[in-house]
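Try it yourself: sequence plus iron/sulfur cluster, in.
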Amino acid sequence: MRWLSSADYFARLFMNAPNTLEGLRFAALEAVLQLAEVNPVHARPIFSAVQRQLVGEGLSTATGILPPVQRWLESDTAIPLTKMALVDETPSADGFTRKYLLSMPDRAEVESVQMGFPGRFTACLSSQVGCAMGCVFCATGQMGFSRNLTTGEIVAQAHHVERELRRTNPGERLRNIVMMGMGEPLHNFEPTMEALDILTDNRGLNIGPARVAISTVGYIPGIQKLARHPKRYSLAVSLHGASDEERGKLVPINKRWPLSELLEACREYSALKRARVFFAWTLIRGVNDSDDHAQRLAERLQGMDAHVNLIPLNATEGFDGQAPDDARVRAFQQIIQNSGLPSTVRQRRGIDVAAGCGQLKARKKS
Ligand code: SF4
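Structure, out:
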């Protein structure tokens, strides 16, 4: 067994992408062990301890790891664990949603959310600290971009939610993951994909790939890469406008990647993956909630295997907009349904815990 410094491992394996034990895919863990002249057969119990038992700092409590390997893992020269501390936790009044604000050693903060019902719990994870996309109604967009999260930091959020779920709801486990927290996940493509590949590994948390949704505001290079990724994760695209002029006012990157190109990328994704694309439409009173908007949205999506999620706006302090009333939401949905497109009105669950993206952090700062 060689006791290389962790800097040596990272230099050899990750070049300029530092990572942690949580952020190692099974094959990468085997490669690290090989470099340390540890038999790669030990990768399975280590991966299980980190990704399934979620032992975190308590590596010494892990079962199935031989003592010499355990001592190596706990030594200064082995791979470090992700450092993430809980700063704030807010349960919703209905008890279904818990929002966590997590802090990293560089003082960057991200938020993760546990949502759902018994048997159907979901983790909503962040991919970046802040966001460069600048959607005008979004609290994270209003913060600006700080940095990308590493693979380990994305995985560690899911671990935190799963541990809390096990503690607060014994017998329950995470069934779904949505990349809908802070940041544009396709703008941080490799770490996000690596994290999801780890979380869907059947030697770890074993979330079904079909139960993973990646939300994008229309970052076309990422959609194209996702269409060619080996695993089939669900794609959720935020539209909010049915013309370039309307959409560009809400979603600045529409100027770089206009609607026609975005929908073409979605059609390609759907064809290559043989998968339905989910479109999100945030309903803002007097801005994009009229019958005419609904009609034009339906026309844009005709012929595509698409599902429309309608989301009444979560108001933020930095955007002067309101959600429409329930009757307007129902009328909008009826037009979508009449066109033959399936649709759902997403409940604004957890609104009392500021569960719109970036809102908890924004509220803590004020
Ligand atoms: S809605 Fe998503 S993509 Fe747009 S600014 Fe917010 S976090 Fe970024």
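One thing you can check immediately is this: The radius of gyration is 21 Å.
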